[in-house]
Amino acid sequence: MLQINRENKFSSYLVPGGYIAQIGAVKHDSMKKELVFRFDICEGEYKGYFSKEYSTNISNGWPNKGVATYKYSDENGERFLNQLIDHVEKSNPGYTWDGDETKLKGKKVGVYYQNNTYTNRNGEEKKGTSFPKFVSVEDIRNGNFSIEETSKKKEVKSSNDFQITDDDIQF
Asked: What angle do CA 99, 131, 37 make, to 5 degrees?
């Protein structure tokens, strides 16, 4: 007899747009100079989106588009992490970053996803959302972000110059 969880029906597409998110688990690796945190949408129609997606397929782990990784081993990475911290501070009145990453848990931040065109495994062009970009909650509420695709993927060209002859194949 086939036994399945009949409550497991969640499947939806995260629409490109701006959302208010809350930071969940935070992990810091000082050896890798990396800060990783999980977040979920905490207001509006898509509230709990990543939690619902996770609960339908726990074996895949927390959904990738609900995770942010900041590597701060160089100036660029450090700059991006500082921008994130600025957005978190602006979104949480009274909060000031003191270097303790565990205090990020529970903080709100604005997140938006842009339109994204990609090619799937079958070579078909598909539409989806980009990976998250962070701004302040105020910027999300005021619409100070763009969901327009910023760059097209590079076209992958194949070469037909490569040929295999029977002499190349060993049996």
From this structure: 30
Length of the chain: 171
> pLDDT per residue over 33-79, tens digit each?
999 999 999 999 999 999 988 887 777 777 788 899 999 999 999 99
Contact 127, 149 (CB under 8 A): no
Q: Are 39 and 50 in contact (CB under 8 A)?
A: yes
Is residue 129 left, alpha or beta, with left meaning phi > 0 and alpha meaning psi from -120 to 50? beta
Structure tokens at 161: 């110059």
Give the three-class secondary structure for 60.
helix
Contact 68, 78 (CB under 8 A): no
At 86, list the tokens: 């600025």
Query: Mean pLDDT score of the chain, rounded to an integer?
Result: 83
38 HSE (CA, 13 A, CB side):
12
